[in-house]
Amino acid sequence: MSQSTDKTGVLVMSYGTPQSMDDVEAYYTHIRRGHPPTPELLADLKGRYEAIVGGVFPLRENTNGQVAGLQDKLEQLAPGRYVCYQGLRHASPFIEDGVEAMAKDGIKQAVAIVLAPHYSTMSIGGYMKRAKEKADELGIRLAEVESYHLHPKLLQALTERVQDGLRRLDLASGGAEPVKVLFSAHSLPAKIREIGDPYEQQLLETSKAVAEQANVEHWQFTWQSAGRTKEPWLGPDILDTLQTLSEEGVKGVLVAPVGFVSDHLEVLYDLDIEAKQVAAGLGMTLERIQMLNRDPLYMETLAESIQEAASAFTV
């Protein structure tokens, strides 16, 4: 891009993922703040990736595709105004790299948004802090989209997926009853409850809104993918929830991981392999909703949220 001061940058942030099996150790070392994973943990992690990618590593393409889809949508809505840059929390290009790229292109104002609808000081808050510190250093005025968990088009996209998932569950289970919808998200350390963090409440608000729109009466929220640390994490974990539902006589489960927006390790392994195996062992049928990825309604959710945040620059 040529030098320009009239365009608005869009820093699209996400957690990041390794680009190949060779990058797994460095990636998790970064997540662990410079502490390499033990040989046992590394072997387990690599085994999980091998199970879902089978030697081909498409996970980064999911994020790249979302950023490209968002650029296309913004161009449709406001031709020539917005330019998207990518910034990852634990992989290259890092958040700071994305801000530096904007500065080199002459961007003076930008909107920061994360590919995650729900705000937590431990997740979105951390992304925004890094982005703002670098933007301030380089003289870029930064507006933030903190959450978009109740955006009508996000809810519509999720509702359609739940309805489709229930149809697939009915076919897969042979019409077995009763069934339950489990909304899920990545667990965080339980200490967030002590500081009034909005993460849990926002997830419940999204789940309730989608359940109502999809006419789902029997649903509950559960957690997944907790970190392997000594401190307590939010629960119950989905594997424990499945055990409880089995004891209650539930025969079919539809998992709606509303805290995630693309096919990733926590979806493709933790749900599609691990949770599905546990459910099968309990005599239950488990299906999962399709992820948002580049769904047009999700792209519109992001684009409209960015436009709203960018309106601060005209004040």
From TrEMBL:
Task: Indicate yes or no for the key word Cell wall biogenesis/degradation.
Answer: no
Domain of life, per the record?
A: Bacteria
Q: Which residues bind Fe(2+)?
A: H186, E266
GO terms, molecular function: ferrochelatase activity; metal ion binding
**Pathway, per record:** Porphyrin-containing compound metabolism; protoheme biosynthesis
- Where does this protein reside within or beyond the cell? Cytoplasm
Query: What catalytic activity is recorded?
Result: Fe-coproporphyrin III + 2 H(+) = coproporphyrin III + Fe(2+)
So what EC number does this one have?
A: 4.99.1.9
SUPFAM superfamilies for the chain: Chelatase
Keywords annotated in UniProt: Cytoplasm, Heme biosynthesis, Iron, Lyase, Metal-binding, Porphyrin biosynthesis
Top-level enzyme category: lyase
Q: Which Gene3D superfamilies match?
A: 3.40.50.1400
Q: What is stated as this protein's family in its record? A: Belongs to the ferrochelatase family.
- Positions with a binding annotation for Fe-coproporphyrin III: Y15, R32, R48, Y49, Y127
- Among the Pfam families in the record, one is Ferrochelatase
Query: PROSITE patterns this protein is in?
Result: FERROCHELATASE (PS00534)
> What do the Gene Ontology cellular component annotations say?
cytoplasm
Function description? Involved in coproporphyrin-dependent heme b biosynthesis. Catalyzes the insertion of ferrous iron into coproporphyrin III to form Fe-coproporphyrin III.
Q: What is this protein called?
A: Coproporphyrin III ferrochelatase
